[in-house]
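Incident log, support desk, overnight shift.

02:14 A customer reports that sequence design results differ from what the structure should imply. Their input is reproduced verbatim below. On-call engineer (initials T.W.) acknowledged and began investigating.
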């Protein structure tokens, strides 16, 4: 912002004339006031241009590019989508498995729930180890729809719970089998592709068991 000293420097004659207007002729006062108005306009314009330059500097493309965070390594890594989806799915099966083991009414549901915890915990750890060596982040959360389903199922009991658990296990494993089958056949990363190929039979077996639940 322009200081009073700066204003005096910009318009010294006008300010000097300002003190003499009381004894000057009428036309001289009008001329002085007109000059003062022009000077004030010029000052305002200079301040506006200065502010505009500051805003331009803040949004300079080169500066914005430097300030932007570097892209995550996982964004360009082969099969990063598979890692994200598979790890999120694995977390969901562990959480739902614990729910089935604790709240299931039939012994089959309880046993299957515990198997989900054991098998998917093992697979999750293996996937995490592989992904870590490739700087690919695994998911820290299960899919939103699975988390929502778990909350709803936790409120159920008896046959109602067992039925909902079965339906969810069938649905989740059908999706997982599809995901792992695609990675097994067309994955780009050899190690992740091998992991999918090795894990796929286990998921197919889970799907068969889920369909047989009471």
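02:41 Re-run completed on a clean worker. Output:
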């Amino acid at each position: 912002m322009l200081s009073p000293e700066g204003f005096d420097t910009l318009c010294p004659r006008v300010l000097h004339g300002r003190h003499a207007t009381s004894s000057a002729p009428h036309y001289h006062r009008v001329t002085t006031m007109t000059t003062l108005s022009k000077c004030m306009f010029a000052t305002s314009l200079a301040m506006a241009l200065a502010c505009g330059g500051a805003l331009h500097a803040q949004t300079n493309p080169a500066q914005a590019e430097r300030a932007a965070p570097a892209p995550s390594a996982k964004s360009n890594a082969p099969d990063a989508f598979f890692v994200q989806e598979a790890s999120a799915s694995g977390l969901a099966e562990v959480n739902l498995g614990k729910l089935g083991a604790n709240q299931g009414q039939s012994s089959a549901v309880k046993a299957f729930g515990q198997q989900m915890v054991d098998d998917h915990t093992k697979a999750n750890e293996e996937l995490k180890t592989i992904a870590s060596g490739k700087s690919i982040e695994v998911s820290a959360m299960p899919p939103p729809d699975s988390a929502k389903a778990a909350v709803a199922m936790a409120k159920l009991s008896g046959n109602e719970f067992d039925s909902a658990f079965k339906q969810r296990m069938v649905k989740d494993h059908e999706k997982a089998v599809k995901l792992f089958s695609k990675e097994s056949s067309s994955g780009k990363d050899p190690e992740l592709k091998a992991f999918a190929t090795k894990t796929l039979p286990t998921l197919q077996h889970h799907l068969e068991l889920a369909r047989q639940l009471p």
